[in-house]
Amino acid sequence: MPTPTPIILDCDPGHDDALAILLALARPELRLLGITTVAGNVGLAATTRNALGILALAGRPEIPVASGADRPLVRPLRTAAQVHGTSGLEGADLPAPLAAPRPEGAIALLAELVRGASEPVTLVPTGPLTNIALFLGAHPELRDRIARICLMGGSMGEGNWTASAEFNIWVDPEAADRVFSAGIPLTQVTIDVTHQALVPVAESDAWASLGTRTGRVFADLFRFFAGWHARRYGWDGSPIHDAVAVAHLALPGLVTTEDYRVQVETHSELTLGRTVIDRERLSGEPPNVSVSVGIDRARFLDVVRETLAAFP
Predict the structure, then answer these.
(1) Can you say how many angstroms the Cα of residue 100 is from the centroid of all Cα atoms in its chain?
(2) Is 74 exposed, middle or buried (0-12, 13-18, 19+ CB in 10 A)?
(3) Which residues are known catalytic residues?
């Protein structure tokens, strides 16, 4: 079997981030070096506590976790508590963390893990891109140690937070602009594809029948998450946005991509945070991002169920 790909997950848990953490832990194709947290879905204290709680649930408290940015680069923090609840993981009680966050903070932990890895590391941001932008600015000497960035964020069509923008990019468009223009190989998993990865309520409810505490907890979490999507969209279920980015790294071919020129809108209040994807190649600029365009949904649902069954 090939050597597992070393990854660092930068996240703002969040129901879908929580499942992304489990996938990163469970897949033999991946080696999770650490987790950094950022304010996004809820504030930083809650996202950090949630990451530590998921690791405790999974029985993997040795994975280092460090807190990062508590606000965007230049804008006030705007959260999605109405989607994920005030705790960020409403719907179930997580176990208390079994470890404390690393005292040096996210940027220092990222630098330590990237510098110390035996091969270039893949960064997997599934929240606002503040930490990643700060890390790239603080440590330009480590850019060659980054194999790629595989992020969840942005859209090819309509947004999910404004008419134009997806939440992760909209929260900190200046950070996103820095990351998209950094010249590092980048894959963008958009909501156009993650909305195809809808988990029906019957499927997420069935996780409770796996016979594990983890299955029961995630069934409860996604019952809450599905409730918001039912009220907002009228859907029977919920997409697991962030887990798709992790699954794409583990299972080549699960997500199909095409290369496009992508830029982030940072000025217009009407389209702030939009990822402008040049599908018709009108700009004349070379592609800079591998953009998701499709997913094998049935396979993805099987992978999610296998992941949940792998934990106690």
Answers:
(1) 22
(2) exposed
(3) 241
The structural domains of the chain, with segments of one domain joined by +, span 5-309
pLDDT one-digit tens code per residue, 53-100: 999 999 999 999 999 999 999 999 999 999 999 999 999 989 999 999
Residue 128 host element (H or E): none
Give the distance from CA 3 to its chain's centroid: 23
Phi and psi at 169, nearest 5°, equal -75, -40
- Alpha-carbon distance 47 to 51, whole Å? 6
Q: Provide the 10 A C-beta neighbour count for residue 96.
A: 9
Contact 168, 127 (CB under 8 A): yes
Please report, as a single letter, which amino acid is at residue 111: A
- Which residue positions in the chain have pLDDT lower than 50? none
Question: What is the number of residues in the chain?
Answer: 312
Residues with Cβ within 8 Å of residue 97, at least 6 apart in sequence: 49, 52, 53, 55, 56, 61
Cα atoms in the 13 Å half-sphere on the side-chain side of 272: 13
Distances, alpha carbon 213 to alpha carbons 27, 76, 133, 178, 307, in Å: 19, 38, 37, 41, 13
Residue 306, token pair as written in the block: 């296998």
Topology of the domain covering 5-309? Inosine-uridine Nucleoside N-ribohydrolase; Chain A (3.90.245)
The helix (H) or strand (E) run that includes residue 277 is: strand 275-277
Query: What residues have CB less than 8 Å from 66, skipping those under 6 apart?
Result: 34, 35, 36, 37, 101, 102, 104, 105, 106, 108, 109, 110
